[in-house]
Fold each of these.
Amino acid sequence: MAQLGILQRNEAQAQGRYSVEVKHVSKSYGETEIYTDLHFQLLKGTFVALVGPIGSGKTTMLNMFAGLDRPTSGTILVMGQDITKMSEDALGEFRARTVGLVPQVQTLLPELTVRENVELPLFFAKVDSEDRRKKVDYVLEKVGIRGEARRAVSTLSVGEKQMVSFARGLVNDPPILLLDEPTEALDPLMAEVILGLLRGDNLTLGRTIFVTTHDKRVTELARKTLRVKKRIP
Amino acid sequence: MSRGVSLQEGQLLARSLNVTKSTRQVIATVAAAVAANAAAAIQLTGLIGQISLLVLIFVTLSVGTSAISSDIYARSGQTIANLRSIGASSRSLSSAVFFSVIGYGVAGSALGAGIGAALGIAMGGQGGAVTIMVTVLGVILASSAAAAAGVYAGVRRTWRS
């Protein structure tokens, strides 16, 4: 990881900005150390895959970037904002505007329709109703689930829910997209759609993409691969 | 933050948090009962007694709505975690619950204050039409403010825990 940090840093000096800066971060749960003194940066617009054994702390790192989990020590800057010092409410606003999160575990609200679920982040980002309608229509079309907009999420298959979750992560057009095993629950066709969108967004929109994965197709698509070697005991 | 969430957004979030019709009815009923008693009693007492009764309304209803609000959030831990991951703040969630219940709280208070005012007159309460109107308005305002404060306090307490 340190080596990757140096490579990224050299590139970043030309552009002057990083999407994520991890400064001497350690993370532990009680006696169990997950990470010790991590120090690296990710360029704006990069596509990074984080790979490693199950239980090695990949999701923990993703959650720290989203401000859902705090490091035990050290600092994390995301798009220039020090998220380790933010209050919970400030983190809410940060997530609403800066980060698109596509978690591995389904976090959609089953009582709501597809459209309502995708629209939720826009409420929190205080987008007005006309813009919300346009953005939701656009992203549902983009992901290929516009026809399902009125369906209750509880009636969808696991793969369809993952597509909705992906649409929800994209709807705010976030500068950084964090995905946790995004292709795991998908059939090959749906996975291809997701991979195509990730590649397109990264190349044409310059969106920073950070993804945890075991899927070789994702690592082949990524510009950089980070490896977590050890499984946490 | 300039605002929490709008009425439409609040209703959507309230559905997610399982704020049911029964929850709203509990709030309306409690508000009506407290307001009716206070509006009747206010007419039978002096200024100090009236102020004390308004304070009592505020304290009673804010503690009650705070407990209801805490209960809603305690039952919806996973939903709240999910909403937080996509940008929800304690302010937006408290607004959601507030908007979804405040109509019932105000309606219950108004109904209770009206009934209480009539009861007060029947029991020989002093004061003309203007005084009674002011009394009713005071009770409704105290009830609404109490509901708002209670909802917000309940959410904050649950959010921090």
Note: The radius of gyration of chain B is 17 Å.
Amino acid sequence: MTDVLDSGGAGRWVRLEDAARGATLHLSGEWRLASLAAIDRALRATPSVRPVVGVGGEALTALDTAGAMALLRHLEALAIDPATVDFAGFDPAHRRVIEVVMAMQVSGHGEPGMHRRNVFAAIGFELEALGRLMLGHLNFFGFLAAGSATVLLHPGRLRPREIATQLKQVGISAIPVVALVTFLIGIVFAYLLGLQAKSYGATIFVVDGVAIGMAREFSPILVAVIIAGRSGAAFTAQLGTMKLTEETDAIRVLGLSPMDVLVLPRVIALVVALPLLVFVGDVMSNFGAMTMAALTLDLSPNSYLERLSLVLTVRHLGVGLWKAPVFALFIAVIGIRMGMSVSRDTRAIGVNTTSTVVQGIVSVILLDAMFAIVFQKLEI
Amino acid sequence: MTNPETMIAVEGVVTRFGSQTVHDGVSFSVGRGELVALIGGSGTGKSVLLREMIGLSRPTEGTIRVFGCDVWKAPADQLAAMRRRFGMMFQDGALFSSLDVAHNVAVPLMEHTDLAPDLIWPLVRLRIALAGLPPEAGTKMPSELSGGMRKRAAIARALALEPEVIFLDEPTSGLDPITARAFDRLVRFLVDDLGITILIVTHDLDTLLTVVDRVVVLAKGKVIGDGGVDEVMALDDPWVRSYFSVRTMGGATGARGDHGT
């Protein structure tokens, strides 16, 4: 009459009693989450000879919702409506757990929300998102232009105190790191050029290489990249947090304009500070190169400076210094807009800050390439 | 309530931050299947005590046992086993913001069980349903949820491993009264139908008056009251009196409303 299943110790969990009117599942042991895998195996191993008409819970010592779910899923897999099954001998608490789980009517098996896109679709979506981002930047640029025009007409709306605070943060506080990095690059650059120049006995031309190379290209790029990482990221994080804590909304409600209070001071400060920092970079890199030249190339600081005054014309210096405010404008616009556009979600600040740094660096390099082409055509 | 099995035992807990004593010998216990509320004015260290119970902050003195296991002295493997037996709902949910609700609920199941995905995902759906969320909530990100849904999602995650005890930190704070009462019913359902023991830190008078079995009142670093709501309301303590007086006035307004109809 009764066949006890022993395949894989299934009998420990469930025993099938086969009678003329149908089968009854007798459950035993602790039907808990901890044993769910074994219970599930035992249920799968139970032969489905005849429709299950009853479930017996006399030998059940514990039952949690996971256990109840396994039982109900088994009945469901056998295409049996649990409502028609006679649950007998259950402890009232166990009975209630079964009723609760039954009432939940949970359906579905797979991982929810998993719709994998193929590679091309994914690239397409990324590109679309990038396009939207760029349009958004352009839009913001328009707002910035309008805001600047307003301030030009009403200079009283300019906030000197905010600008000064920002100038200190993005300019003065950045001097040490800018000075250190450009000094070290000056050393490396002089060493690199010195190796070549020495073999021709032309060590004096190291000065030309370092001074012109740094002033025109490397100092602006290096400093802009540092500032994109430093101040661009800071703008996004500051404004993103302010957005999240509704500070930007408070500014608006108090009748102030976020453009005047938050945006313009940062843009102006960065546009003013970056050329100055690039100049710091010009000076420090030559200082580094001069040190290196004196130590390894037998080029005295006197002769270095003398050569420097000959080769480093205002034209070369100007190329670098003119590029800087354009870089600054892009870094500021990206940083501010990425901050202002965080969604109501703490994670978004991190995502946007990372994005700001990447966009800032890429845009600096793109702009520099464009400048190179333009300057070449103009023969500057 | 008559069940003698002690799930949580707090014995002589003293907590000091520098020279400031927050707890000065706090003792109480929670038995299996009870729904106990921990109340007290701000600064009485309710949340600190809760953090000490779940092993996040260390009390200066005293012992805290959960399932008979000393939270601050037991060996690591015992602690790990103990942690799997309770769930915690943080005040604002503390959902992982990079995962959707279903994957938030799946985290404990994936980390602490060796179940196959075809068992994990139905379980996750069951937890989401038990917490009173619609099935489609599973694919939402935490940032897309309302406050009430976020708290339900947090309950679903706390329920993941079939806990015997759940700690709730101010579950109804920031919810509108209707959502808050629905949440109270959810809490009561977990206790009555699933046999879960719940310790709840709350300010919400309605929660106290409608669903809680027992109230523990914390004041001046000690437990000044421990019993049913009626017993606690009768306490002769200025904070308790002013706390419950709000409700007495509310009751009067309600009575007037009844006369009107």
Note: Residues 1-8 of chain A have pLDDT under 50 and may be disordered.
